[in-house]
Amino acid sequence: MRALQFTEYGPADLLHVAEVEEPRAGPGRIRIAVRASGVTPGDTYLRSGMFGERLPLPHVPGVDAAGVVDEVGEGVTGVGVGDEVFGMVDLTLLGGANAEFAVLAAWAPRPASWSWEQAGGAAANAETATRALDLLGVRDGMTVLIAGAAGGVGTVAIQLATARGAKVIGTAGPGTQNFVGSLGAIPVIYGEGLVDRVGAAGAGVGRGGVVDAVLHCAGPVPDLISLAGSPDRVVTIADLSGEHGIRLTHTAGGPGADPQALHGLAIAAELAERGAFTVPLAGVFPLAQGADAHRLSETGHAHGKIVLV
Question: What is the pTM (predicted TM-score) of this model?
Answer without folding.
Answer: 0.90
